[in-house]
Specification:
Layout: H1 2-25, H2 30-40, H3 42-49, E1 57-60, E2 63-67, E3 74-76, H4 91-102, H5 106-119, H6 125-132, H7 138-151, H8 154-163, H9 166-179, H10 185-193, H11 199-209, H12 215-224, H13 227-240, H14 246-252, H15 259-269, H16 274-280, H17 286-302
Helix pairs in contact: 1-2, 1-3, 2-3, 4-5, 4-6, 5-7, 6-7, 7-8, 8-9, 9-11, 10-11, 11-13, 12-13, 13-15, 14-15, 15-17, 16-17
Length: 303
């Protein structure tokens, strides 16, 4: 009788171990299926074997796990070498897998972003930007924003400006202003021309760069942007001082909310503004004519 009990217990332990291992490799709880294998024996083992795979990536507690393609053993997603078979994984492979984890669920997303933050690699930027698109995941967004700031490249900083947390966007603006790097122009224009809330900040940075090729986009922003964006566009145009922008700045004088900025911009551009102002004074109403007259007087006084 004792031998029978011993054999039953041994069989239960073996089935528990096998069911646990199978379940874990398929992305399920090893503990729960181990218990199932112990109490239900061969039936529990068959059930574990019939489980559909949850994919090659899954979460075990707070650890993201991947299945080694060589030995099929579970290892940490950030592992560069499989501890079971020695299979090596490149940084590109690891970051790509973390990008997949970001799309799985909120917990996987947070853990993936934490790992990407530690790697601080430029190829992680698109995946960190992807994490920023999950607006309800505040902690994930905050960590992704901080990770992009730590990477610190132009592309990363533009990513923060597009979708990052507001508290970090100010820092990105400061850095981009200090660098005044022309290579940031395409990214900044994509903000001005796209559906982003940081158009004013992008225009402000463009002004510090002073690239004349941006004037059409700035004029469009002056005509169609909100209050802050319009004022930022005028400030940028004042810094760039391109004669082709003078008509748009004169038109802005009609808007009481923009008049002070437009006046300052035209005075800063100086003498090239005078012929346009003298032409405009002929067709404008009395109140605008007075403004234009003051601008011309101030320009002549300074020259």
């Amino acid at each position: 009788m004792g031998y029978v009990i011993l054999i039953v217990i041994l069989q239960a332990i073996i089935c528990a171990a096998l069911a646990s291992n199978l379940a874990e490799k398929k992305g399920y709880s090893s503990g729960a299926w181990g218990v199932c294998g112990f109490f239900f024996g061969i039936l529990g083992l068959i059930a574990a074997a019939g489980l559909p795979s949850r994919g090659d990536l899954y979460q075990r507690g707070t650890i993201l796990v991947k299945i080694c393609p060589t030995c099929a053993e579970p290892i940490k997603i950030e592992a560069q070498v499989c501890k079971y078979c020695g299979q090596k994984f490149s940084k590109e492979e690891i970051i790509s897998e973390l990008g997949i984890a970001i799309e799985k669920n909120a917990n996987s997303r947070l853990q993936a972003v934490k790992i990407l933050a530690k790697l601080q690699d430029e190829i992680a930027i698109p995946y960190l930007e992807k994490a920023l698109s999950y607006e309800s995941d505040y902690e994930t967004r905050s960590k992704a924003t901080k990770a992009l700031l730590d990477i610190g490249t132009i592309a990363a900083l533009i990513g923060v400006l597009k979708k990052g947390e507001y508290v970090h966007q100010e820092e990105a603006v400061k850095i981009l202003k200090e660098r005044a790097d022309p290579s940031s122009i395409p990214g900044l224009l994509s903000i001005i021309e796209g559906d982003f809330s940081t158009k004013a900040e992008a225009a402000e940075i463009i002004g510090f760069i002073g690239d004349r090729s941006t004037t059409p986009a700035l004029i469009n922003l002056l005509e169609k942007g909100d209050y802050d964006a319009k004022r930022a566009a005028i400030s940028a145009l004042a810094r760039i001082q391109d004669e082709s922008t003078i008509p748009a700045l004169i038109s802005a004088l009609a808007d009481r909310n923009m008049r002070d900025k437009a006046t300052a911009a035209l005075i800063k551009i100086g003498n090239p503004s005078i012929p346009y102002l003298e032409e405009a004074i002929k067709r404008e109403g009395k109140s605008i004519r007075k403004v234009i007259d003051r601008i011309i007087t101030e320009i002549k006084r300074k020259t």
